[in-house]
Design goal:
Layout lengths: L19 H10 L8 H15 L1 H10 L18 H22 L6 E3 L3 H7 L7 H21 L1 H8 L2 H22 L3 E3 L7 E3 L8 H18 L5 H20 L39 H5 L1 H29 L12 H17 L5 E3 L3 H6 L5 H14 L11 H16 L10 H17 L2 H21 L5 H14 L1 H8 L1
Antiparallel strand pairs: 1-4, 2-3
Amino acid sequence: MSSPVSSSSAPTGAPAPRSGVAGRLDSWFEVTARGSSWAREIRGGVVTFVTMAYIVILNPLILGGFSADQAAQDVAGGWLQNAQVGAVTALTAGVMTILFGAVARLPFAFAAGLGINSFLAVTVVQDVTWPEAMGLVVINGLVITILAVTGLRGLIFNAVPAALKTAITVGIGLFIAFIGLVDSGFVRTSGSASPPLQLGSAGSVATLPTITFVIGLVVIGVLMARRVRGAIFIGIVATTVIAIVLQAIFQVPTSNGQNLDDWNLNAPVMPTQIVALPDLSLIGDISFGAFARIGVLSAVMLVFTLVFTNFFDAMGTMTGLAKASDVARPDGTFPRLKSALVIEGVGAIAGGATSSSSNTVFVESASGIGEGARTGAASVVTGLLFVLAMFFTPLTQVVPLEVAASALVIVGALMVSQIKDVDWTDFSVALPVFLTIITMPLTYSIANGIGVGFISWVIVRAASGKAREISPLLWIVSLGFLVYFVRGPIEALVG
C-alpha cells in the first residue's frame, strides 16, 4: 500500500495533468494528484462492480421474500416482485454511486445495504405494509442527513464505545448468516420444544436444494479464500448453473410450504428472455402510515433501529476504505467527510423512495481500491455499470433462494470476523458485547440486540465504577430502548 498522497499537488514522478476537458476532469477527480491514472480508475471501477454485482440478484430475493408462503408477504398480504426490485436496486445503486463519485470524489460504491434489507423483510413487514416500511426507510434517511449536515452524526458516533460498534456489526453478520442457514434448509425447526432447531430434515441435509446451498457455500468460500476478485458474484453464477443442471435432471418442484424437499422460493429455470426494459413502477410507492398502524412509539423505535444500523455500518466502512485508499488523515477523517456523510444519508432516502431498501457504502469497494482505484472516477464507472445492469433483471428469476442463502452466510462470516477487535479480557466489555451479538439472531431482531447491548453496557460499566466513562448520549439512548422494551404496559396505560 502506498503512502497517503496530498491532494494539493502531484507526487514526484506523476504525469502532469492534461489540458482542456481531460485536464479539468483530472483536476476535479484528482486522478494525477493521487498518483493514479484513468486506466487504473476504470479498471478499479469495473472490479468493484463485479464484486458488488451480486446485490442485483440477492436484494430481490431478500425483499421478495424468504419463503414461498407467508414470509414473502407484508402485514396486508402484499409482496414485492423480484423483477421490479432488481430493476430499482440496480438503478438506485448506479445513481447513488455516480453521485458519490462526482461529489465526494472517493472510490466508494453504494448499493442496498445487507442487514437493513433483511431487517425489513424478516421483522418490519410483519407489522406494516411494504410501502409503509419504505416510508420508515425514507424517514431514516432524512434523520441521517440532518445529523450529517448539523455535525451531530460525528458526536453521536463518538459517544458509542468502539466495542459496541463492533458488536453491532458482528451481531448483524451472525443474524444474516442465521437467516441464510434457515432459508437454505440447512437449519430447520424440529417441531418440538427441545431442541427447537435441528440440522436439516430429521438431521439430514440430503435434499437437492440444501445440497445446492452447500455447494454454493463451498464454491464461494474457496474463491474467497483464494482471494478471487468478484468471488461472491462468480460463486452465485457458478452455483446457479449447477442448480439449473440438477433441476433439469431431477425436476424438483417449488415449495408450497409443506414439502421440505422442494425449492424454497423459486426453482432454477432459465427465463424466456435475458434483456428487458426495467419495470420501475416501485419508484415512489411509499407510505407514512406506519405510525397510525402500529403506533408512534413502535414506529419511532423501528426508525431508531434503521438509523443505528445505517449509521454505524457506513461510518465504519468509510473509515476502513479511506485507509485502504490512502486518503485517511491521522485522526481517521478523510477529505470531504461531511459531503460523504450527507450523500450516504441521501442514499437511504433514495433507497426507500425506490423500494430498494436503504443504500449505503459497500465494503466490497475495497476490491476496486486494491486494483488501483483512488478517486471518484472509479465510482462513476461502477455506477454506470449498475445502470446498465438494470436491463438484465430477468436473470434475477434464475437464482434459487438456496444459492442466495450461501452468499448471505459468506457475507455474515465477513462481518463476524470483526469480533477480533473486542477486548474479551474485560468482562464489563465482554458481557454487553456478547449480549448484543447473541440477541440479534436468537430473537430475529437487530433492534433487540442493540437495545440489550446498550442497556447492559451502561448498567455493568456504571456498577463497575466506570460511570464517568459513559457518555450522557449513551444514557439517553439506553433509556429510550428501556422504554421500547416495556412499551406494552406503557401503551396500555396511555390507551
